[in-house]
Design a protein that fits this description.
Porin; 1 helix
């Protein structure tokens, strides 16, 4: 498991070095464009495989928030670090052979995400990351869709719908709404 986290960290550092290198080349030719954005979203994460106090499977909706950073490579493509933070503790049933129940204590789920703007306000998201909690960590794939509306110079209203598929664990999806600041 430690090898996975080491590789994940190396890939993350490699991607950010490429992005920062591309940024310095573009800044010399285009000083007027802003390429960075920070987002803060409030949301709810939906978990279908949750276990309630009676030990029965139940649908659970827990509060969460997102802190996202994006670097716009060009008009259509961006790469970023999207971090989901669930505020509550909960129990879930895994998809492993023994279907064990595990506790999750305020998990944090960062992912390196690529986004493609396919029309004026909508972007498709695809990423790879991990969900970290003191009990157990899982690797995940994140897919989603995001809507952004610029309401003031360098400020956007943002909403997104994302699905996190965790390997040998549980799936969750979340809906968030918030603001973004282009830097």
């Amino acid at each position: 498991m430690m090898k996975f986290y080491t590789n994940f960290l190396l890939i993350t550092l490699f991607l950010f070095s490429i992005v920062s290198n591309a940024q310095s080349e573009q800044e010399s030719s285009e000083l007027k464009e802003r390429h960075h954005s920070l987002q803060f979203l409030l949301g709810h994460t939906q978990i279908q495989e949750a276990i309630n106090e009676d030990g029965k499977r139940a649908w659970l909706s827990v509060p969460s928030f997102e802190l996202n950073y994006n670097f716009e490579i060009n008009e259509k493509w961006a790469i970023g670090l999207h971090t989901d933070i669930v505020i509550e503790d909960f129990s879930v049933e895994t998809f492993s052979e023994d279907n064990k129940v595990i506790e999750r204590s305020s998990p944090i789920a960062p992912a390196i995400v690529t986004s493609f703007k396919f029309c004026n306000h909508f972007s498709a998201l695809l990423g790879l990351g991990g969900e970290f909690s003191k009990e157990e960590n899982f690797m995940l794939i994140r897919i989603g869709i995001e809507y952004g509306y610029e309401f003031h110079k360098n400020w956007e209203l943002v909403s997104n719908l994302t699905n996190d598929s965790k390997f040998n664990a549980y799936n969750s999806f979340s809906f968030g709404i918030g603001i973004a600041r282009k830097l």
